[in-house]
Amino acid sequence: MAVRGFDESEEKKSYGSVFLLGTSLLVVVTLWSLWDDNITRRPWKKIQTEFYRLDYRKAKAAYDEEDKKLQTDPAYQELAKKLVAEEASLNGGDLAKKLKALQGEEVKANVRFSEIDQEVKFIKSELEEAWYEFDHAVQQGRNSKPYQETIRELDKEKAKLDPSLEAARQKREQIKEEAKKLHAGVKEMETQLAKMTDERDKWIRVMENATIKLGPLSIYKIPKIRQVVLDEFDRNNFDEPVGRVDRCQTCHMVANRPGFENEPQPFRTHPHREVLLADNAHPPGKVGCTTCHDGQGPAVNSVQQAHGEVHYWEFPLLRGAKAQSSCASCHLDVQKLQDAPLLAQGQRLFEQVGCTGCHLVKGYEDIPKIGPSLKRVSAKVDPSWMVRWIQNPHNYRPNTRMPNFSLKEDEAVAIGAFLWSAAKEEGEKWLQGHPMPAGLREGDKELAAKGKNLVESIGCRGCHGFADGEVSTVLGKEKEIIPNLKNIAAKVGPRWIYHWVKNPRDFSPATRMPSLRLSDQEVLAITAYLATLGSKSEEITGIEGRLGDAKNVKQGEALVRKYGCFGCHDIPGMEKESRIGVELTTFGSKTLEELFFGNHTDIRNTWDDWTYNKLKTPRTYATERIEQVMPQFDLAEEDIKALRILLASFRDKKAPSRYTADHGQRATQVVEGRRLMHQYNCIGCHEIENRGGFIRKYYENPALAPPPLNGEGEKVQSHWLFGFLKQPIPLRPWVNVRMPTFSFSDQEANLLVGFFNGLSKVEIPYAYFDDRKVPKEHLDAARVLVSKDYFNCFSCHQQGDRKPEGPPEGWAPDLTLARSRLNPHWIIKWLQDPQKVQPGTKMPSFFPGGPDNILGGKDDKQIEALRDHIMTLGRKDSG
Known about the structure:
Helix content is about 45%, strand content about 5%. It has 30 helices and eight strands.
């Protein structure tokens, strides 16, 4: 049998220290892993704990403040003393004895009621049994009389008990009511005290919400992840819908709570919370935070990761104004968003400065060219002026939208030569049919003075300035939408001016310049005045020959193609040329690797910095090898930032339709109609969407200026507005300024009608008023109301050929036109409160407070009667 060996030296060894060291290491590692997992990698837990501490502290301070106010409030102290005295009287004295006696009586009454009620229930149970037996006997054809007798006897027994049961019930209720009356004083005072302490006690609920009870102790709430899941919000690389997890509110817990506006982040209330985070806007519990602010929604390991400010994350947190760029992901109409002013301004700039002439962007494909047609330019401008303009337009008009291409004189001459050559044939044809007008004499000061008066009165200043500093309609910070004519004589001659002013579309069928329906003599006067503004440009030596040089023409054509002049101007032979710039539909999603910084080392490598410098100095990234052709726009700092916000909104990802704002027909009508409205500069004369009406600054009396058009869609009938846009008629004959004829196509007029209807949220654009159903008493009453004895309406309003009293500047529109012009529902609204509909109107408010002796003194009936009368004016039988 084998024997195990035995080592005496092994017997003397001890491994206790090894086990102790191992155990210690295990404990340390375990503690470290717990610390690392719960503290180091869970910074949000510390943030939540700090927030609960802050929330509790603020609530406690608010509670103490309110409690201090109550302790010094005499009314509260007096009421509290009365309550104590009343409660004391219920606990001792005669009231206490009476209350105790009532409680004893209530016990007896309850017992008596229960006894009788139980007997009645027993009888009802026996009745149910008897009725069952009776029905069963009838069904089987047996004798049912014994059961009928039983039912009658039971009914008699129940009838005997019913009065006693009712008496017992009334006795019990009487005792309860007497006891309630004894407590009524205490209840009333408790209710009053509760109202007085409501503001203080609400802070108790806040403190309770920040803590949890553990027996007699209170500790801060245990932190937990807060997340919102947006189903099918994003799409993966396989174009499949996937949900978005948003955990931002794990740290930003008070974004939608007031009272934390001055706290540091992440404990600060969201700006404009009442508007932006309302239930009908962006409730955080439903749409989260990353839908607007981007960032890495699921990340909670660190602030940098949560904000997406780490390498390779494509959507870092949108800070400050840049958050406006995300509005375009959900909103089709960004112009109406009050909290996205830079985005709205950037969009207006992008559409009207001419960016779409070179760059294709989805949704902006059909923006018309912003520059004038050059198909007959040889018949229009002075050749020397044209070359200098091409070379640097900012020298002639610093605020022009036309950019500076930094051309040398030879290049400008070459471009001019090509344009002159391309337009020569059409220009000569036009000149042959449009001779110098007879009666136009150079230096006719009297005629020029008449022209100046006309220009200042008929509405030209709604679009044009005529001196330094006169800019009627400004685009962005300082760009002119319409040319300032202070030096027009350097550009064009009186022959062209005359025919242009008389009929702009005869020279350029697509021009935005309208017709003011001027007589020949009025056109002559305006031409004489404009011819005095500036002087003919100094002629460039040999300009005629240089413009006719075939070599220059060929070089100019190449330069025009290179710089894409046809993007803004109609140029003969280049109607089918495509845009020369890169497409910008997804420019906001470009990564740094896609942006070329040239040889710059002084510009930070960020999307924002690259874009800012590109807009400020477009050719700044040019190198010896790589040419840049984007011209210099000389945009103001604010305009650059606004355009950068818009460019950031051009992303390759859009929110799914279920999450977007209104993209329906109404929103589309408003967006497209607004573009057309801006294209024709309607806001130069009219205030629309509470913006514009720039011409009004030239009138001391607003009644002599074009009217505001806020709420126009609700005000007028759609068919009337369509006809008025097609062929304007005088509505205010005393006003000199004229509504021009824009020669709108049917499509354009419909678009503008839809725009105004969309702004006013008109559901039914057409209204029919059946004047045959108007009660005679309404007409009789209204004739009295409009008379001099009451409202004296026609002291201001014109009625057909009958003119009002007083000076013309105090007159109001012709009411005989209301029948075909105004919406009858709007008339009611207007008469109820004119100032609410149009703040600042001279129309007085007669209601409430109509005469008591007409239609029973009822305001609504009198308003309806006035509406009915107005809608019948103009009929042959109307009075």
